[in-house]
Design a protein that fits this description.
Blueprint: H1 2-9, H2 22-27, H3 32-42, H4 49-56, H5 64-72, H6 89-94, H7 98-104, H8 107-111, H9 115-125, H10 130-140, H11 145-148, H12 154-162, H13 165-168, H14 179-184, H15 189-201, H16 207-213, H17 224-236, H18 240-253, H19 257-271, H20 275-280, H21 288-296, E1 305-306, H22 327-339, H23 344-352, H24 360-370, E2 376-377, H25 391-405, H26 425-435, H27 447-462, H28 468-477, H29 479-487, H30 499-504, H31 508-527, H32 534-540, H33 544-547
Parallel strand pairs: 1-2
Helix pairs in contact: 3-5, 9-10, 12-15, 15-17, 17-18, 18-19, 23-24, 25-31, 28-29, 28-31
């Protein structure tokens, strides 16, 4: 308890502005937040090469932004490389480091060697490394690659994943693999997942391998991501019955509730058996699948929602000395949350220490974890600053904010998206220029200013998109991505639409993000006393006149 009180009472000096000193950087704990300040420090033109290199050594995670900023200051990145040097073929045969040998004999390099050299390498490594020998033989022999790699099919995956597009599309690799061989590849879940993703990602490439995937049977060794990807591939190839088996396995394998719900929902869509909708009523997770089931079966709205209006009124007089606008104070709070992870009751007590309007985001963030997510938070803070917005826009802002930051004002992402609405630095600068005002990036930790800029950005997005789902896609993946996706023919009328498009858009992060924001939007419309039907929102997605201004 002493540790908690100490952390709550301790307040870090937090300096706004671009004039960041090396001494200030030195005093910050290693974190993404510190990396953000190092980046800002390196962007200052008066920083010397020596000081730039000193600051760069303190980063937690190297990014292209940091590397470019260091280069602009004339600094050189010191790399402790474990990479092996590029060796000649004769040197490869002399070295004793298997790691360096394998890093030199990549599928691409092997594909460029002539038969004489390959024969020498196969003979040399035959008694040294069996797998390396198999790799060389697979790339050299004209016989069926499945026969060569029968004892270790993982090498086939390595050739595909480490080879360039030319190798992947070669007749030796891009072929209709036998039913038995492709099923053996499932033994290597992570590599197989990437293998499948790469094949599906190119609509006009890998036709033989796509046919090979249609021979697969579901396996407990497959990841959930794999099971869904393959199931949707079967659906696109009008093999719904086979897809059903993959959804059933995904339901069994699902570690997270959302995966179980997604599998159950697709079992309903593919079988039309309403027992699956009834099963979704038992889920504690609030998502598009469970909300859809409740609407379809005409059941009440979920009762496990934590909100300011339906759960309790804020009446705490105690205010901890934690600055919600300070990212380093937020880091301290997160450390305490992790410490209480295995004692949820204490976590709820800890949440109640933040039971006031100033710390509303932190309070609900901790409270949700105290209930192990069986109760889910949907706070509605800063309402007086959103009063000029329509209910539609207010619900959209809340839906985005909940997904972006859980209403924590000082969140910084690994790409330095800032604050409650996670606005990227380049967008902050662009909006400031258009508003004709000067702004420091740190001002984005002020939730009111952050909301102001997010609302400005939302107005731009609304000129292109109507649907809250498409606005969410554009907010996360960018307007350009969303426009291209719509023009590609997705979200057209057809069997399983709009669900099939929602599950198969190309950006994995945006795909998940959109579904979560859409569910948030439906909940917030209910909390704001202007409910909307999820069914109607989904129906509008295939009607351009009701969902966007991109399609004609």
């Amino acid at each position: 308890m002493f540790r908690i009180i100490f952390i709550l009472l301790f307040s870090t000096l937090f300096m706004f502005g671009r004039n960041i000193s090396l001494n200030e950087i030195n005093n910050y704990p290693k974190s993404i937040a510190k990396d953000f300040y190092i980046w800002q420090y390196l962007e200052q033109p008066w920083v010397s090469k020596e000081n730039a290199e000193t600051a760069f050594k303190q980063i937690l995670r190297t990014t292209s932004k940091l590397r470019k900023a260091l280069k602009r200051r004339g600094g050189v990145r010191q790399i402790k490389s474990r990479k092996c040097k590029i060796l000649s073929i004769s040197s490869i045969m002399k070295t004793k480091s298997i790691r360096c040998i394998k890093s030199n004999l990549t599928p691409k390099r092997i594909s460029l060697l002539d038969g004489v050299v390959l024969t020498k390498l196969i003979t040399h490594f035959k008694k040294i490394d069996k797998n390396l020998t198999l790799l060389l033989m697979a790339m050299y022999y004209s016989q069926n690659i499945e026969k060569t790699l029968y004892s270790n099919p993982e090498i086939y995956l390595d050739i595909f994943l480490k080879g360039d597009l030319k190798i992947r599309q070669s007749k030796k690799i891009n072929k209709i693999l036998s039913k038995h061989f492709i099923q053996k590849l499932v033994q290597y879940p992570k590599k197989f997942e990437k293998f499948v993703e790469n094949i599906i990602a190119y609509p006009k490439k890998f036709a033989p391998l796509k046919k090979a995937l249609l021979q697969l049977k579901p396996s407990k060794k497959m990841t959930n991501k794999n099971l869904f990807t393959l199931a949707f591939n079967f659906i696109k190839n009008k093999q719904d019955k086979k897809a059903i088996n993959f959804f059933k396995m995904a339901k069994i394998n699902g570690w997270y509730q959302i995966y179980k719900d997604m599998a159950t929902f697709w079992l309903y869509l593919t079988t039309k058996d309403k027992k699956y909708l009834s099963e979704l009523l038992n889920s504690w997770d609030i998502n598009i699948y469970t909300l859809y089931a409740r609407e379809e079966l005409k059941k009440d709205f979920p009762s496990n929602i934590l909100s300011q209006d339906t759960f309790y009124k804020f009446n705490s007089t105690f205010t901890p000395n934690i600055n919600p606008k300070n990212p380093f104070d937020w880091i301290k709070v997160k450390k305490e949350i992790r410490r209480f992870k295995k004692v949820p009751n204490q976590l709820i007590d800890f949440a109640n220490m933040f039971k006031n309007i100033k710390h509303i985001g932190i309070h609900f963030y901790i409270l949700e974890r105290g209930f192990k997510f069986k109760k889910q938070s949907f706070p509605t803070p800063y309402q007086k600053y959103l009063n000029k917005l329509s209910v539609y826009d207010k619900a959209q802002i809340y839906a985005l904010a909940r997904q972006e930051s859980k209403f924590i004002p000082s969140v910084i992402s690994t790409s330095y998206a800032l604050g409650m609405m996670q606005i990227m630095p380049f967008l902050v600068k662009d909006i400031a220029k258009r508003k004709n005002e000067k702004i420091e990036l740190e001002e984005m930790f002020n939730p009111i200013k952050n909301l102001e800029y997010a609302i400005f950005h939302l107005k731009d997005l609304k000129k292109q998109f109507i649907s809250p789902l498409f606005i969410a896609y554009a907010y996360n993946g960018g307007g350009g991505f969303t426009r291209r996706m719509l023009k590609s023919g997705m979200f057209s009328r057809g069997k399983y639409e709009p669900f099939l498009s929602m599950e198969t858009i190309s950006y994995s992060e945006t795909r998940k993000y959109g579904k979560k924001v859409l569910a948030n939007y439906v909940v917030y419309r209910k909390l704001l006393n202007k409910p909307v039907s999820l069914h109607s929102l989904l129906s509008d997605l295939t009607k351009p006149s009701k969902s966007d201004f991109i399609r004609k």
